[in-house]
């Protein structure tokens, strides 16, 4: 008479309590730091004689850090998500920006 359908389980890669902007900010901030550290290691191995591609990678890291900071600050306006993840995403993006500014000054 009444058919009961089985509900399909919905698989997700992140918790629903984390805002989407926070996830994007964490990914961009983390990638920015990884690219920057990778460029530093590559430059150290080569003895400073590197191609222009490393400079382009550093500019890409700068853009990712600024974008991550923007998404992180925007995530505070969203209702879902806990504030610890939002703060962590902003701190990670600011850390990437500070690292890039310090490298630019040196």
Report on the structure:
The protein has 106 residues and is mainly α. Helices cover 70% and strands 0% of the residues. It contains 3 helices and no strands. Helix 1 (20-46) packs antiparallel against helix 2 (52-75), helix 1 (20-46) runs parallel beside helix 3 and helix 2 packs antiparallel against helix 3 (83-105). The termini are far apart.
The unreliable regions are: none
Radius of gyration: 19 Å
Largest sheet: none
Helix content: 55-70%
β-strand percent reads under 5%
- Sheet/helix structural class: mainly alpha
What is the H/E order?
HHH
Shape: elongated
How many runs of DSSP E, i.e. beta strands?
A: 0
* CA distance, first residue to last residue: 76 Å
Number of helices: 3
The chain-level mean pLDDT equals 86
Summarize the structure.
With 106 residues, the protein is mostly helical. The protein is 70% helix and 0% strand. It contains 3 helices and no strands.
Task: Give me the secondary-structure topology.
Layout: H1 20-46, H2 52-75, H3 83-105
Helix pairs in contact: 1-2, 1-3, 2-3
Essential attributes:
106 residues, 0% strand, single chain, mainly alpha, elongated
